[in-house]
Structures are given as structure tokens and as C-alpha cells.
Amino acid sequence: MSETESGHYFLAADTGGTFTDIAVQQPNGELFVWKVPSTPEAPDDAVLTGVTEAFDEIGASLENVQHFVHGTTVATNTVLTRTGARVGLLTTKGFRDILRIGWQARPSLYDQYQRNPEPLVAVEDIREIDERMSSEGEILKSLDPEEIRKAYEDLVEAGVDVIVVSFLNAYTNAQHEREAIAELSKLGDLELFAASLLSPEIREFERTSTGAINAYIQPKISNYIARLQDGASKAGIGAPLWIMQSNGGLISPQNAEQEAARTILSGLAGGVTGAASWARMLGMKNVVSFDIGGTSTDIAMIRDGEPDETQLAEIGGLPLRMPAIDVHTIGAGGGSIAWRDSGGGLRMGPHSAGAVPGPVAYDQGGEELTVTDAHLVLGRLGEELLGGRFKLNKEAALRRMEVFAEEVGLSVPETAEGMIRVINATMARGVRKVSVERGVDTRNCDLMAFGGAGPLHAAELLAELDMRSAVIPPQPGIASAVGMLDAPQRHDYSSAVFYRQGDDLPVRDQLFYGLLDQADELDVSERAEYGFFVDARYAGQSFELTIDHADDWDKLREIFDQAHLERYGFADPDAKMEIVVLRLVVTDRVAQGTQLQPTKETAVGEEPKPLQEREVYFDGEWQKTPVYRRTDLVPEQSYVGPMILEQFDSTILVRPQQQARQDERGFLHLQKVEA
Q1: Are residues 392 and 447 in the same domain?
Q2: Rg of the chain (C-alpha set)
Q3: Do 621 and 477 belong together in one domain?
Q4: What is the b/e burial string over 443-452, where b = at least 16 CB atoms within 10 angstroms of the residue's CB?
Q5: Which of 337, 408, 432, 480 is most buried as measured by Cβ atoms within 10 A of its Cβ?
Q6: How much of the chain, in percent, has pLDDT values that exceed 90?
Q7: Is 546 left (phi over 0), alpha (psi -120 to 50) or beta?
């Protein structure tokens, strides 16, 4: 066996809408990245193809894989395309319409035609059970097993695939939900879920919605994971598979099958996890994670190396009450389509050309101009991507742009630049959403830009938002897969409580005893870390903030007031504080060696020579611009734009009056040139 083949390899695969990305950390610490076209009908096919090709390229055996991580969009797409299981719901008598009524909020206040999304459970598949639990957990009306049996028979006859049980106030006492599940399990072999086991917290609509989402996607997730594990085993991968969760941690396949809802934002979390790790590595305080793919841009705020989290995510307009990285997604990506509104104004997205037919330049039958076509016409993109494996048809894009430019009434380059400016404005609003609207000035932020198209827009966002710098990681087009290599195993536990400021507050281990008891069942190493948090609010408020736990009210109040001030711009010294949820987070690094340290892949000593020069359009004029191979840059040397840097997985734009410096770890730092 050669030196290249020996040792342990850490492997990550991230499924995207257009490409499936593969990242391999080799025994010497170096990273190898690979891309293959995604296979939406069977995503595991692309994963296995990409993994096999990647190991063929580096001349290593898949038997040496020690750690295998996967980020999947199967759960997301199942909800968005409404292709999940038929779900039956047992709920408390009188609450049949809880999913349909929801918050009673209109999705668009002034649009009388826009409607809330349809629930995942059809009204004819809901059965009401005459039981009742008080808000204090006292049984007011006991459960009747015969009623449960009758409901099961009705739902089986109706043809449901899965049953979820969500009873009123089960977050305070889940006895009835447990009894119902026990009774149902005697009657057949349908998959069964209790909402209180997935989300044992206040708010019935969100809790029931979470249970419904989990039941809806579970069969598809279970089948997908089984196929992927079987394929990986046949390919020779002996390492256990880990699935990326929405919270930025890893979960075992067995847990992912039972709690499938935890993977809803799996595909988005890897990049943010990587960006947070790199922010810590580079010593950056406030970082905006900026991930542009073919269809969307995913934006997240990272403070002191930790991404903002939310306890209430959303998918397809449906609430999901589970811990998740707080990612703001907008319909703006490389495939976003240009169109004109009723007033003749130029608009971009949110609809996308996707992978098929894709942009006009893909030459796959696409007829709608996209952001990618605009970059190509402006000279910012070359006519070959992925090291020459993917060709772009510039002439086709130019012909279509000429037609559209005539409709708009501008020249061809003005139209293409207008398209970029419009999409950049949309992206800038997204960045302000996670920064300015949360009390963080963009002038005090660095932009961590990645994804296939992120480095093409980083320089423009840096200028528009007057940010401190834009940072491009070594493998930006595959950063989500790379970020997964650094993700730890993570388990979240929560329980509803009620303490008001002035009440006796038990010491930490007594307060969290029930959650610690659940965590005792985990198979974690001595390195496992335990995080203790509480959801707190001012008395009378409807929503909470999650803060670090402290053993006394004064310290808790100080932490909460500061968090409230940062988020909402004020604190209320006269209001009492309440604690309504306890949270325990257990993290454990799954295997030694996954702490990612990007290696230097840059030239040393000599000035780089451009691969070519081409005309690139900036601010109304064409400028001759050198094009370099990124790996030819000399570390710690500054280069003044305009310039373009090309690499296997992305293209980087540096605007005029900006400078670029690549550090010894391979991160590229863009800043404006000081006058």
C-alpha cells in the first residue's frame, strides 16, 4: 500500500440542487474536493458516484474512511414538493382544526389572494379523542383505549401511512400521549410518533406541526438512509454514517430515522458550521455567513464564533419547533431568472432555472436569462468551469441578452450589470436582516462568502454594505461539505417549566435533573460537553429568548436584559423575568482528527503570471482585467483589483479599488483600498 493510501480519511458529502459536493480530509491534513451533478430522483446515486470518483482521483481505498458525514436535502424537498407520507393525527376533542387555524396570521397583509400553506395532514385524516389534561398537568378526563382502537381502525381504512399523537397540554404531562402510543402499537405495525417526545414545549400549534412534519417525512428519510448505508457498505466504506442536523451537529442514522424533522435544514447547516469554525480560527468577532447556490442564498449571523440559533424554524411556511441554526434564506442565486414587472421594472428571482434546464449558457434548453448568464456576458465568468469539465456557451447567453436588452431599453452590458445590481440589492437586504435588524452594524462585520456563486458577489456586497472585509475560504464552492467535517455529535433535550423572578431557583444539577437523566443514556466520550440554557421572557410577553443558564436570578437577569437589548433595542428594568423552558445541549466530537485546519496551497516567492486578460465590465465601462489561478497567489502579499481568480469549484471577483490578500492558511481577504 502506498503512502497516499495508508492512514485514515474523513469524508463528507453534501447534496445540493445542482451539484453534490465531496470533501476528503487526507491523513496529512490536506483537503481534496470533488463535484458531480446531483441526481434529484435518487440523491444517494450522486453521493456514491462522487465518493467513488473522489477516491479514485486521490488513489486511496474507501476501506480507509474513518468518518463519513452527509448533509441531505431529502427532508427539505419532501416538504416543499409535498411528496411525503399520508399522515393520520389523533388530537384532543375540539382541536381538530389546530393545524389549519395556526396563528391566524396572513402571509401577506395586503394580498387578498395569498393563502397560508395547506397543512400536511388532511382534515379527513384527523380523529378527535375525548381526553383532557389541564395546563398544570392534571388529568381532567382519562383516555379511553376503545376510542383509540376505533380511531386506529378508521385511519388504517382511510389509508394513512403514519400516525402522530398530539394532545392538548401534553408538554406538562405526556401520560396520555404515551398511553395512546402504547395502545396503538398493539394494533398494528404503522409508524407512530408522540409530539411531546419531539417537542416537549409550550405552544400547541407549533408542537403539533412539528409532529406532523416528522411523520410526513419519516418514511422517505428512513428509506433514503437505508439505501445510502447499503450502497456505502457495498462500495467498501466501513465507517459509520453520520447525518447533519439543522442545529449544526451530527446525529446517527437510527436517530435521524426516528426524529427525521431534525434533518430539515441539514443541507444549510454544514456551511454555517464551517464558517463558524473558520471565524474562530481567524479571530473574527461578528461574521455574516453568506452561501450562494444555484437557487437561493443562505445567510446567518455568527457572533464570537457561534452561529445564531432559533428554537422555531420554518419550512414551506410551516413551523418546526426544534433547535436550528438561524439561517435566513432568500430566493436569489446563480440560477435566478430575470423578468420585468407590470411597470416594466427589472426584477430578479425568486424563481430559478435550477439545474435543468439551467441558465441559457448551460446549453440544456434554458431560455430564461439568469445571474450566471449576466456574469458570463460581463466577462466575470470564464467559459469553462470545474477545471474544464463544464462548458458555458457565451454566444448563446449574449444572443438572448441582446433580445432582453432591447426590451428593457438599455445596452447589453448595462442590462447585464443591472441584473447583477438588482440581485445584489436583494442579497444586501438579506444581510441586513440577520445583522442590522438584530442590533449588529454591518460596518463591524466581516462577510464569509462561499457557495459556487458567493465569491462572485462578495466584493460587491463588501462595497455596498461597507463591511470590514470579505473572506473567501480555500474551497468556497464546496464549503458546506468541508464544514461538515468539523461538526460534532449533538443531542438536544428540553422540558417546560415555570419560574418567575423571586421564586426559589434550584441549583443547576437539581433544576436540570430530568434532562441530565435522559442524557445519561447517551453513548458519548469523556470529551463530551454539556451546555445548560433557559428560555426566558419578561412577564406578559408571548415569546422568549434562549440564554445561558446561571445559578442566581441576578446573573440570569443581567444576561437576559443584555440579550433583549441586543435583539430588540431595549430592556425593561421594571418587568419581572420568567423562565419557561430548560434546555440541555450535549456535544461530542465523534472522532479525533476532524478539527479542520485548512492547509496552505499557495505558491511561494514569485509574482504570479495571469492565465489571460479579458475585458470585464465595471460601473459602466469595460476594463482589461487579469485572470489568475488562485493557487498561484503568494501568501500574505496584497494585490489590487480589478482581478479575477479561478479555481476548480468557484470564481472570485475583486473589484477596482479593492485589494486581495491570501493568508498562509489559504483564506482570501478582500478589503477596500484606503485612500
Answers
A1: yes
A2: 26
A3: yes
A4: eebbbbbbbb
A5: 480
A6: 74
A7: beta
Q: How far apart are CA 564 and CA 555, in angstroms?
A: 14
- Please report the DSSP string for 258-326 in residue order: HTGGGGTTHHHHHHHHHHHHHHHHHT-SEEEEEEE-SS-EEEEEEETTEE-EES-EEETTEEE-S-EE-
Selection from 545, 544, 515 nearest residue 530 by Cα: 515
Give whole-number Cα distances, 51 to 62, 242, 635, in Å.
Answer: 8, 15, 31
Whether residues 107 and 188 fall in one domain? yes
Q: How many other CB atoms sit within 10 Å of the CB of residue 171?
A: 24
Written as one string, the DSSP assignment of 432-462 is HHHTGGGT--GGG-EEEEESSSHHHHHHHHH
Q: CA geometry: angle at 647 spanning 644 and 649, to 5°?
A: 120
Report the SS3 class of residue 188.
coil
Please name every residue paired with 23 in a beta bridge, in sequence order, or none if there are none: 12, 33
Asked whether residue 173 is domain-assigned, the answer is yes
Q: What is the DSSP string of 595-659?
A: S--PPP----SSPP--SEEEEEEETTEEEEEEEEEGGGSPTT-EEESSEEEEETTEEEEE-TTEE
Largest CA distance in the chain: 82
Helix, strand, or coil (residue 15) = strand
- Write out the three cell numbers for 153: 381502525
- Separation of alpha carbons 382 and 647, rounded Å: 11
User: What would the DSSP string read from start to end of 65-87?
Assistant: EEEEEEE--HHHHHHHTT-S--E
Residue 567's alpha-carbon distances to 116, 433, 439, in angstroms, are: 27, 12, 6
Q: Structure pTM? A: 0.88
Question: For position 674, which CATH number holds?
Answer: 3.30.420
Residue 350 three-state SS: strand
How deeply is 175 buried, as exposed, middle or buried, from its count of CB atoms within 10 A (0-12, 13-18, 19+)? middle
Amino acid at 101: I
Q: Same structural domain for residues 482 and 533?
A: no
Q: What pLDDT does residue 602 have?
A: 46
| Confidence at residue 546, expressed as pLDDT on a 0 to 100 scale | 96
Q: Indicate if 464 and 567 belong to the same structural domain.
A: no
Determine contact, residues 671/469, Cβ cutoff 8 Å: yes
**Parent domain of 506:** 489-588
Handedness of CA 194, 196, 202, 206 (dihedral sign): negative
| 6 band by pLDDT with thresholds 50, 70 and 90 | low
Please state the rounded mean pLDDT for residues 308-314: 92
325 and 409 together in one domain: yes
Instruction: Report the candidate in 191, 97, 195, 91 with the shortest Cα–Cα distance to residue 147.
Output: 91
Q: Residue holding cell 445510502?
A: 228
pLDDT at 600 over 70: no
Where residue 165 falls among pLDDT bands split at 50, 70, 90? Answer: very high
Identity at 418, one-letter amino acid code:
G
**427 and 554 assigned to the same domain:** no
The pLDDT of residue 591 is 59
